[in-house]
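Worked problem 6 (solution included).
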Amino acid sequence: MIQEKKSEKKVSLNQEKSGVPQKHNSEENKIIELLEENLKVSKEILWFNKRTAHWIFWQKVKGWFYFLIIVVPIVLAAFYLPPILKDLYGEYQELWQMIFSGGESVQSINDLNLTGEQIKALKGSGILK
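Solution. The predicted structure is:
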């Protein structure tokens, strides 16, 4: 600020010595004011641009985080669930076969590989006689 005032004084002194009319001096001051205002607005725009860039960066990070939260479990499920489901489906099929065939496919209670507690629970519920 102090340098600007000194340079303005030097310019105005030079203009007075050179015989330049005051009209040019006021126009020059107006240009300087406009340039200062332009600089102020430019700094404000730069601040908003930096803030927006920061916001965009965190939105991208959040987007990747959400993407990973959704995609990683799906990929893991695609690799690990088929063998598990295959085993469960086999057990489920055996159960339905026993239910609808009336237990004819089971030769004895030992074919079921049940523990003593499971056998007691099934006898208690009336499923086994």
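Discussion: The mean pLDDT is 79.
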